[in-house]
Structure formats: structure tokens, C-alpha cells
Write a structure and sequence with these properties.
Strand content: 5-15%
Distance between the termini: 45 Å
CATH superfamily of the largest domain: tm_1862 like domain
Radius of gyration: 23 Å
Shape: globular
Helix content: 40-55%
Number of strands: 13
Bound molecules: cobalamin
Strand order of the largest sheet: 2-1-3-4-5-6-7
Number of helices: 20
CATH class of the largest domain: Alpha Beta
Length: about 500
């Protein structure tokens, strides 16, 4: 049988001292691997999790001698590692067919195909396409008709994006393709979104989000219709993981699981009924979907933490820029209710939108401080391709650079304003994050509890964050200066991206 390697490249190839060191979910590759069962022998190589150098990665591939290598790349921010991996594989053996997939590829498939080391790109959800492509390459099936991007007579042909409507029909991932014991006992990271207990897994239960916030790419990735599997199937998978690996907690990674209220409440009820004693947190929760019944169900089912996305403390910004159906007046009451059910609340805010005034940014800071959340995260607005924010930023003349290089738009604010500079936003963000979350001893204690770290350890992270904004890195300073219009300053303050680990 032909051999397929499925791989995550290592973020550290992008930058040795990279701080956003998330590990990726092995279940995505295990699911893709399951889909090609009977068509190819699959080996998974996770260079990120096992911190493989590019040489070690190539050596592992050389051991396997695959016919095909599928590389998965989640974010555009680190897309350089896709190309490094593809080049290394072709240098090893020109005959290996390289297939690229993942969110970055779905959005930037044309740019990805500029790299001649990549033979095929997959646009959208890859389960069926990968299986069909392998069959085609094996000579046992026709060419896929959706989701495939390939070269033909010197041109790039891009088929339409694939979304799988019946996600409940997908099989369980083949967890035997990886050493799950390694993954479930190591945190993807420390800090606010750590798993409540180990062993743990990350779960993505639904796909899609109907809200259409201006900054979010999910509409272009997963569509506006929220697709759900059968509740029993999801709970069976959780039970399987508990029985097999002794699972104690999980993280729900969905874009907005609460919006399909009926489905979500049924899920919580069945989970409670199965009485598995698991704890969970929710990474992204639409607070406007919350009602009393849902809250009670959440608490009974084992939810210990919720991350809510408020985005702005200014009504005008929420309505005219963010486009989220959120009534700010309800937020403090809802947060208090969640907390009174023993669930901690993390709240996300974004500053530096196109057309946002300095006073509106100040309103957000003040709202974040007083909304009652246990921990507040401040992000810098980053215009992503295919979003309304991208169009707005373009109108403000701010995205020329991003047009040329999809990576650059992640490193710093690119939005232009007469009232503030990207540097103002970076400084404000870091110091207000520190003041709001750590300015008072009670808050400091609470955040330490949620992060699962001592206050001393957290002080080091706070210090590193201050150092990053005040001292900056002279080399990166020049790089930024080249790209950002604005007054030249020495000692540039730098928060490198919308999700700097230090303060995420
Ligand atoms: C959960 C999640 C995470 C999780 C991990 C996800 C994972 N899969 O391991 C965590 C919390 C770790 C995470 C981290 C980050 N994330 Co995130 N994340 C998501 C989220 C909400 C869901 C992704 C997911 O798990 N989908 C489910 C799986 C099954 O789908 P998938 O990964 O897309 O894979 C499918 C296809 O892409 C394809 N496919 C994937 N790989 C391959 C490979 C081959 C060979 C083939 C054929 C097909 C294929 O088939 C798969 C099955 O259908 C998305 C939003 C979204 N809806 O996509 C944001 C999102 C992808 N994240 C985003 C960002 C910015 C980040 C961070 C950079 C944040 C930060 N600054 O720290 C980091 C980067 C981490 C990294 N190492 O790259 C942005 C990316 C924007 C962009 N275009 O770059 C998104 C779109 C959120 C947003 N709204 O803006 N993330």
C-alpha cells in the first residue's frame, strides 16, 4: 500500500524564540488519517509537539519513505513553516507528492500554490477531499471535483471550497495514529486557557458561526450555518476518551457552540446524565445566547470556566464596526450570574479598530475593568483577508503591506488613525492589561488561581511583557519602521501580534 505522512511543522522554525507556542490538536490529523484507511498507510509526524528540528523532521520522513506528505497549517501568521517543510521534503525526494491543507491554505490557496514545492492545496474541510485525492493519485478514483487546487498547463485551477454538511457522518479520529498519552498530559500552554485538569483533550464539536463579526474569518472558513453532529455521538466520543485515557477534563474549541441553543442544551443534559465527572472550559462563548436554563445546565454538566468575547466597551464600535448583536448594558449582569454559578469568566476585548477614536478605546478599557470578569484580555485589531474589517482597513489606507505578504499583518497593528499610532495601542494594551488584572491584590490572587501559577511566576511574565513593549527588539524595530507609516521613534514598543502569549 502507498504511504502517507500527515504532519504539523514546528512553529520554532519560524522564529526560535517564538512565544505563541500552542500545540495543535492531534485529533485533526487522526481524523484525516482515519479517512484514508484502506487507501494508504498513515504516519503522523508532529514536529511542533515534539519540537523537532527541520533536520530531524526530514530524517523521520526519510525513515518512512512516503509517497505523499500532507502538511497542515492553521494560521497565516506562521505560514513560512509550511514552505520550509515543503522545500525540505522536495529536497529529500522530488517524487514525494506534497499536499497542503488547513485554515491558512483555505484562505490563501493561491499564494500557497505559488510555491512549486507544493503539488496540491486543499480548500476547506479536508476529510473527503484527502481520501478522494489519495484514491486518484493511487489510480483508483477520479480527480476530486471540490476543494482541490492544482496546476494545469501552467495555470492554477481552484475548485470551490469544501464544507461538509453532515459532520455527524464523519468517523471517530484514529487516535492510535499518535501517542495520545503524550498529548493529554501536557498543557498546550499555561495561563488563562489551561485545561482544568489532566488528562484532557480539546474538542471541536460544531462547525460554523452565523454572527459575522467584522474582524472574524470564520465565515469564510466554516460558513455561517452552524453544523452540528448528533449529541449522542459527541458524548460517546467523550466517554470513549474517558474510558481509554482516563480523561478528567476537556476544552471546547468551537467558534460559538451556544448559538445552537437546542443542540447545546441537549448536549449538556446528556453529559450530565452520563455522570462522567468531567470538568470543561469553553474557549469562545456568545454571552448574548446565555439564558438561565443554559447557565444551570452548564454548571451541572461540569463547566468551570467561560471565555466571553465582548470586543468593545463602546456602543458605537460594537454596532458600527464590530457588528455583534450584543447589548453592552446586559454584560455586567450576565457575567455576575455566571460567576455566581461557580464558573470563572475571562473576557476578550479588541482595541485599535479602523475609525475608532482614542476616547472609544478608553471606553473599552474602562468597561473591561468594570465588567466583573475575573480576567481581561486586550487584543489589537488585525485585519484578516476576507473579513469586513479588511475592507474597512483598506478604506483607511492601512493594508498595502498585508496585500503583499500575508504574514506581516499579524505582527503589529496596521490600522492608520489620526488620533493614535500602532505604538500607542501596543503600550496602552500592555500597561492596561497589567493594571486591570494585577493592580489589586485580590485580582492578582484570583488570576493566579485561574492560571494555575504562583503570583511570583506571573510577575515574571508581566515583567517580560513590560520589557517587550518598552525595550523592544532593535532589529524588529527596523522591520516595523519599514512597514508602518507613522512618526519614527527610537525604542519602539512591540507587541508582536493579536495574541501575544505573554498577555493572551
Ligand atoms: C480551535 C482553534 C485553535 C486551537 C487549536 C486548533 C487546532 N486544530 O489544533 C488553539 C487554541 C491552539 C489555536 C491557536 C491559534 N489560533 Co486558532 N483557531 C481555532 C478555531 C476556533 C478552530 C480550528 C479547528 O480546530 N478546527 C477544526 C479542525 C478539524 O479544522 P481545521 O484545523 O481547519 O482542519 C480542517 C481543514 O482545514 C483541513 N485540513 C487541515 N489540515 C490539513 C492537512 C491536509 C493535508 C489536508 C488535505 C487538509 C487539512 O481538513 C481539516 C478537517 O476538515 C479556528 C477558527 C476556525 N473555525 O477555523 C481558529 C483560528 C484558526 N485560529 C486563529 C489564530 C490567529 C490562532 C493563533 C495564531 C492565536 C495566537 N495568536 O496565538 C494560534 C496559532 C496556533 C498555531 N500553532 O498555529 C485564526 C487564524 C486566522 C488566520 N487565517 O491566520 C482563526 C481562524 C480564528 C479567527 N477567528 O481568526 N487555535
Amino acid at each position: 500500500m502507498k504511504k502517507l505522512v500527515l504532519a504539523y511543522p514546528n512553529l520554532r522554525w519560524h522564529k526560535v524564540d517564538i512565544q505563541t507556542l500552542w500545540n495543535l490538536n492531534p485529533s485533526t490529523l487522526c481524523l484525516l488519517g482515519k479517512m484514508v484507511e484502506g487507501e494508504a498507510n498513515v504516519t503522523i509526524i508532529d514536529a511542533q509537539f515534539y519540537d523537532l528540528s527541520i533536520e530531524a523532521f526530514v530524517a523521520r520522513i526519510a525513515d518512512v519513505k512516503p509517497d505523499y506528505v500532507g502538511i497542515s497549517i492553521l494560521t497565516s501568521e506562521y505560514s513560512s513553516i509550511l514552505h520550509l517543510a515543503a522545500e525540505a521534503i522536495k529536497n529529500l525526494d522530488q517524487n514525494i507528492i506534497v499536499i497542503a491543507g488547513g485554515v491558512h491554505v483555505t484562505i490563501e490557496y493561491m499564494k500557497v500554490m505559488d510555491d512549486l514545492n507544493i503539488d496540491f492545496a486543499v480548500r476547506g474541510e479536508g476529510e473527503h477531499i484527502l481520501r478522494d485525492l489519495i484514491r486518484f493519485l493511487n489510480g483508483s478514483g477520479g480527480k476530486p471535483t471540490r476543494g482541490l487546487v492544482y496546476r494545469h498547463e501552467g495555470r492554477i485551477v481552484a475548485q470551490s471550497q469544501e464544507l461538509i454538511m453532515d459532520i455527524g457522518s464523519l468517523p471517530l479520529p484514529d487516535y492510535d495514529l499518535v501517542k495520545m498519552e503524550d498529548y493529554i498530559n501536557v498543557g498546550s500552554r499555561y495561563g488563562p486557557l489551561r485545561p482544568p485538569e489532566y488528562p484532557y483533550v480539546r474538542m471541536l464539536i460544531t462547525r460554523g458561526c452565523p454572527v459575522g463579526c467584522s474582524f472574524c474569518q470564520v465565515e469564510s472558513i466554516s460558513g455561517r450555518k452552524v453544523r452540528v453532529p448528533d449529541v449522542s455521538r459527541v458524548v460517546d466520543e467523550i466517554a470513549y476518551l474517558k474510558n481509554r485515557y482516563g480523561l478528567k477534563s476537556f476544552i471546547i474549541d468551537d467558534d460559538n457552540i451556544a448559538l445552537r441553543k437546542k443542540f447545546f442544551k441537549k448536549f449538556l443534559k446528556v453529559l450530565t446524565k452520563r455522570d462522567m465527572g468531567l470538568k470543561f472550559i469553553i474557549q469562545s462563548f456568545a454571552i448574548f445566547a446565555l439564558d438561565d436554563e443554559m447557565l444551570e445546565l452548564l454548571s451541572k454538566a461540569g463547566c468551570v470556566g467561560i471565555n466571553v468575547a465582548i470586543e468593545s466597551g463602546s456602543k458605537r464600535v460594537i454596532k458600527e464596526i464590530v457588528n455583534k448583536p450584543l447589548n453592552l448594558e446586559d454584560v455586567p449582569r450576565l457575567i455576575a450570574k455566571i460567576k455566581s454559578n461557580g464558573i470563572y469568566v475571562l473576557a476578550n476585548f479588541i482595541i485599535g479598530f479602523p475609525g475608532e477614536t482614542w476616547d472609544e478605546i478608553r471606553e473599552t478599557i474602562s468597561f473591561a475593568e468594570n465588567c466583573g470578569a475575573d480576567y481581561v484580555k486586550l487584543f489589537v485589531a488585525v485585519p484578516l483577508k476576507g473579513t469586513k474589517l479588511w475592507d474597512m482597513a483598506k478604506k483607511h489606507g492601512s493594508t498595502e503591506i498585508a496585500d503583499e505578504d500575508p504574514e506581516v499583518n499579524w505582527r503589529f497593528s496596521q490600522i492608520k488613525s489620526d488620533e493614535w499610532t500602532p505604538y500607542d495601542i501596543s503600550i496602552l494594551r500592555a500597561y492596561e492589561w497589567d493594571r486591570i488584572n494585577f493592580g489589586d491584590p485580590n485580582r492578582r490572587r484570583r488570576v493566579a488561581e485561574i492560571w494555575g501559577m504562583s503570583e511570583d511566576e506571573i510577575s515574571k511574565i508581566r515583567k517580560a511583557t513590560r520589557d517587550a513593549v518598552t525595550a523592544g527588539n532593535p532589529h524588529r524595530g527596523e522591520e516595523i519602521q519599514e512597514h508602518v507609516q507613522g512618526p519614527k521613534r527610537d525604542n519602539l514598543p512591540i507587541i508582536t501580534d493579536g495574541g501575544n502569549l505573554l498577555i493572551n
